[in-house]
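Protein modeling request. Please complete all fields; requests missing the sequence field cannot be processed.
Requester role: graduate student
Desired output: 3D structure, token encoding
Chains: 1
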Amino acid sequence: MSPRELVVLGTASQVPTRHRNHNGYFLRWGAEGFLFDPGEGTQRQMLRAGIAAHDIHRLCVTHFHGDHSLGLAGVIQRINLDRVPHPVTAHYPASGQHFFERLRYATAYRETVRLTEAPVAADGTLATTATYTLETRRLSHPVESYGYRIVEPDSRRMLPERLAAHGIEGPDVGRLQRDGALDGVTLAQVSEHRPGQRFAFVMDTRLCEGVHALAQDCDLLVIESTFLDEDVRLATDHGHLTAGQAAAVARDAGVRHLVLTHFSQRYSDPAQFERQARAAGYEGELTVASDLARVPLPARRA
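Delivered output (302 residues):
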């Protein structure tokens, strides 16, 4: 399995169908796992996808509509039942604190895991580790909603031909990377800038500044496209995007791989979403999500 991979657990919007479970998205980012918007049925979808409670390190909820959060109760209880050996952090809109508490303690169970509540109240950085920064931006929906963005720190790519030209090899390469210079040779002389990978998760929202900020320069963008373009008025009224709008965001933001999801039950042909996304001018890699699909993050940019 790819060390950085999106597993789609559900792709329906408010009403599930025979072929689409309620929302649920698991991102494996190396040694850490992020579970986004677990709707009803997420536990069973995790089982089908081979994802264990032990794989979850962060729970990220965009907003407290049922199709994005009713699975929290079961997932949290499963984390405790399985005695997950590491702490788990939950991010969600601060305005929905009472909803989170109701879901966390929906029924009786024994708490065995340290679950840290980290509610979101404004745009900004939620966490910084050695391998990523987790950011959030406010979206535009009838209830308070936030999208999430994961950014890997930029690094340097060592260039073998330049190292050889300066006679640097073996352990000296590591020393140069650590110290920034070696015997008058700087790291910049023998390497090039390597952008870190970027992932964004954008659910229920109208077009707004937050959508564009989250999507900018993403390697993989997961974004709702509840409606087709001919239903744009419905989309705006209910706080959603169309396939063409989502694709235009990805086009303008330089997204490399676009994943469309969160589809209204009124549409039966997924190919319509792809056609409208292409008609909007998006030319990158495109996935119209289906339940249990696996989408690896693109290779790092050169």
